[in-house]
Amino acid sequence: MLTGQPASARSFYENLLHDRVVVLLIGKKPIQEREAALAALCGATWTACSLTGLSAARLSQVVGAVNYRVAATKDGVPYVARVSSVYVRRGDGWKLTFHQHVSW
């Protein structure tokens, strides 16, 4: 998630998102296709983002996880969630392969 417009978020996530992905967002069906994940992650305008309670763990040489609380405004509506993400290291860097928002 990035503060800003959907176009800038798409550019960010196109570089970050793994080819194989699972995205679980509040109120949405599970997403397991990259293009659908890009559309879901980049379809909103986010402002006033605040990330707190960050924790990170390296689960292996090639897998890492992060968890944090986000408070933001999503398309003009207050939004609060706990976010968990799993990254896999590839030759071109760390790629997001699992991303979940849970009501908080």
Describe the structure.
α1 packs antiparallel against α2. This protein has a 5-stranded mixed β-sheet with strand order 1-5-4-3-2. It is of the alpha+beta class and 104 residues long. It is 19% helix and 56% strand. The chain has one domain: Roll (Nuclear Transport Factor 2, Chain: A), CATH 3.10.450.50. β4 and β5 form a beta hairpin. It is globular.
Poorly predicted runs of 5 or more residues: none
Strand order of the largest sheet: 1-5-4-3-2
Query: How would you spell out the order of helices and strands?
Result: HEHEEEE
Largest sheet: 5 strands, mixed
- Strand portion: over 45%
Oligomer: single chain
Care to give the gist of this entry?
With 104 residues, the chain is of the alpha+beta class. The protein has 2 helices and 5 strands.
Chain-wise SSE layout:
Layout: H1 6-16, E1 17-24, H2 34-42, E2 46-58, E3 63-74, E4 77-90, E5 93-103
Parallel strand pairs: 1-5
Antiparallel strand pairs: 2-3, 3-4, 4-5
Protein name: DUF4440 domain-containing protein
Organism: Amycolatopsis keratiniphila subsp. keratiniphila
InterPro entries: DUF4440 (IPR027843), NTF2-like_dom_sf (IPR032710)
State the main characteristics.
alpha+beta, NTF2-like_dom_sf, Nuclear Transport Factor 2, Chain: A, single chain, DUF4440, 2 helices, 104 residues, DUF4440 domain-containing protein
